[in-house]
User: Fold this.
Amino acid sequence: MNEVSGKFDVVVIGGGPAGLSAAIALAQTGAKTALIARRTPYADNRTTALLGDSIELLRRLDVWRRCEDKAAALRTMRLVDDTGRLIRAPEVRFSCDEIGLDAFGYNTENRALMIALEERAAELSDLTRLDDETVTIKTGSAEVTIHTRQGHSLAAGLVAGADGRQSLCREAAGIEVSRHDLHQSALTFNVSHSRPHRNISTEFHTAQGPCVFVPLPGDRCSVVWVMSPKEAERLVALSDDELSMAAETQSHSILGRLQVEPGRHLFPLSILRPRQFAQHRVALVGEAAHVLPPIGAQGLNMGLRDAADIADIVRHAMVSGEDPGSPPVLKRYDSARRGDVTSRTFVIDMANRSLLSDLLPMQSARAVGLHLVGSIGPLRRLAMREGLAPSWRRV
Ligand SMILES: Cc1cc2nc3c(=O)[nH]c(=O)nc-3n(C[C@H](O)[C@H](O)[C@H](O)COP(=O)(O)OP(=O)(O)OC[C@H]3O[C@@H](n4cnc5c(N)ncnc54)[C@H](O)[C@@H]3O)c2cc1C
Assistant:
């Protein structure tokens, strides 16, 4: 048995983008940190629109400079009602210069982001990396004990559970979740196109969900197309030429001729809300703490704020001699994350429901809401700022 026993201030479980960011942020505070995560090649060619303070956090983690050449700036966001219904919302256009920014954020290849995070994590002397999988987690009043598949045994004052939507950490902490299957799937792929995107991200709102074309470097975009699972199964099976044509039709040819690139993936959509964000020496980070449909690019941006907050709270606790897994510290994390996650989950759920609803009052409310946001400057600027990050905090 490959026994590596050790006592850590914090053990991070799960090495997706949220877990790696949390591990780096925690190790940079000087906390003795371990990361338990399999080193596997990133499996799909998805991209992530990193908004607002997410880039600032990645700079502070010394990660951004390692992947920024694989990212495209997002300067304008267009929302286009493509429901074909009688009551349609007017087009809304958000422009970053209206709120004094050079860009709302950057659309980044997940693979490049993961390589950059792994590279930075490997440099940190306060971060012990186990290329392994956690099999048991036992929470106790003084510490958490963790056993891995390869026979390692660790103890920690705090576990940062970043092990995704089926989180073992969440289960070990006895945190209940509500799950809501949306009966929608997201089809993702990348395209090259004959006309420039001019750093404009365009979101077409169809009666089955949004279809968004998000700029990548060069004349390329990533596409996230939300639809019914049956329609998604049909589209994913099309030939490259057929899917290129279908995407071009959906884009109303705003990008000219489209050509899909190799690699397409389907993601069934759901909403997951935990009752608590931290309990029994476990704090939830990333999709262990929140799963949302990909509307408004919020998921990993929230995951990065989880990472920033847990590191900040642990740093303060340790400076003042507090146990980082103690109930008052966990309560601080729960309070820090609750408003952000709950309000965004609610808004995105409502936006999605209003799109799918056949009820005229719901469609009218959506059209009026978008009309107001589109035509009233202060409201539009508020929507832009809140879409980037909650106004009451900084990363
Ligand atoms: C189609 C689509 C488009 C999206 N677009 C955006 C966007 O533009 N902007 C945005 O902010 N968000 C976006 N998101 C959301 C974003 O992708 C997720 O929030 C993010 O990937 C979640 O990262 P994570 O690290 O929390 O989870 P994951 O990436 O799921 O990582 C969890 C990790 O934990 C590991 N793990 C699980 N169990 C164990 C165990 N027992 N021991 C050790 N390791 C374990 C897993 O192997 C995995 O590596 C999108 C999502 C989808 C589906």
User: Anything to note?
Assistant: The mean pLDDT is 91. Residues 327-356 form the longest helix (30 residues). The two ends are 41 Å apart (CA to CA).
